[in-house]
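Render this sequence as a predicted structure.
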Amino acid sequence: MNHVGPNSPSEKGLSDQLIVGQVVSGQKDMFRLLVRRYERQIFGMGMSFFSNAEDASDFSQEVFLKLYRGLSGFEGRSRFSTWLYKIAYNTAINGINRRKEYQSIAVEGAGIEADDGDTPERVLIRKAAREAVLVSVAELPERYRVCIDLFFFYGCSYQEIETITGFPVNTIKSHVFRAKKILREKLERLT
């Protein structure tokens, strides 16, 4: 039995589907690789919906437990990440109905790294621009924020967003287009 150690070079070469197949066929310890690959994204989605680390952590555990229990149901008709995000999205929507409104992952996702050649003024300008974007994204209607997050921050295609949210592709395209237009208008007013 060939085990892949944590952080081993061959770990990165394993596809999600291969890992799923190994877990389903009895190599349960391989599940940790899926958790490690997606824990940041799932925690980020939890922060988007629940806005605090404790609830996001509980959400992440619930999602990975559901994933583990349902792993044999993955048929490979979509990317594994799409299937996982659908589980996470549905779990979050069920939880959000009992809690509070969705918050964009943009709050968690966009850090500001200083470039070696950056002046303090450039760093401040970049920080102010980021804050303006975050405020503008937070003011978007929820359905737009969900589509924007999945499209820009998770890198999902329109078809994958449809699979995850259940929104029709044309509605998703419209939401992304309208959100970008609203953001552009808001940001132009700030300049």
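Summary. The two ends are 61 Å apart (CA to CA). The chain has two domains: 8-103, 117-191.
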